[in-house]
Write a structure and sequence with these properties.
Length: 327
Amino acid sequence: MFYDLNVPYTGNHAELQHTLAFLAELGYNTVALTNAITGKLPADLTCPIPSPLPFPTPKTLRLITRCTLTLSDPSQNHRIASLASNYALLAIRPISEKTLQQACLSLSPIDLVSLDCSIRYPFYFKHKPLLAAIERGVRFEITYGVGILGTGEQRRNLISNATQLVRATRGRGIILSSEARRALACRGPWDVVNLGVGWGMGKERGVEAVGREARAVVVGAEIRKSSFRGVVDVVFGGTKGDVVKEMGEKGQGKGKMVQTGKRKANDDGVENEVEKPLSKREMKRRAKKARMERAMDVQDEKDNAARAPMEVEENDDTPIVDQKDQG
């Protein structure tokens, strides 16, 4: 399966419909529609992307929502948790080195760090904070659409930033997206893999950038929202009450036990005794007792075997006959 996790949602529905149809023809299975927010967060954090869309979409294409927040101030993060709850994915686009370090080390819950590779950053990408972000489950995104429809300077900045990011991350934890506002900026998955190879990624890393790594972002976001701390899945466990559990087959004359611990009588009017499970201490005590009994039995057998020859010699009273007397 191939993923394109950055397709901007625009009011031009005709162009958006054409873009989604073209992505489906290219072989993509999952596409994220992006709502970009720049500056301070608005009072209303609900997702403006309608579901379903007001136009028909390919049946083979799965659509999810995403928000890309341009972070220019490190203190602009107090409502990120509320923002993440309204979208399937949350991406942060840092502008300065401080916001990049904050997104890599402490900012949560986020799924992606999307770098604007069309501009020139006044700092270098360092290996340690990027590696810390990858270990936290955060992935880095490179968008190639600006290199197709952008200016010459934007293409140079894209190549420079992409190669620097691949060098700093050793090619790990990177996904490749289009950020295409028009169908003309979209490319097929294998063309995107070739772009990654040209930026210094291996072929296997390039395939993972549009496949496994992108899937890990989507699945990780779903697990985070439907589970407790990404470990325990939250499911409906029923309601408390006197749930009656049958202790055996019906018609066998066996009683039933209620969760309150009370015992019910069977058909003969005799209460059924419910055996309590043995504690670990009791199990150890019984095992030790069994070992001692076996050791005593073995010792008794050895004593009996050693005593048997002595008893035979004491009971042997047959007279000894001289051969000369017989002659």
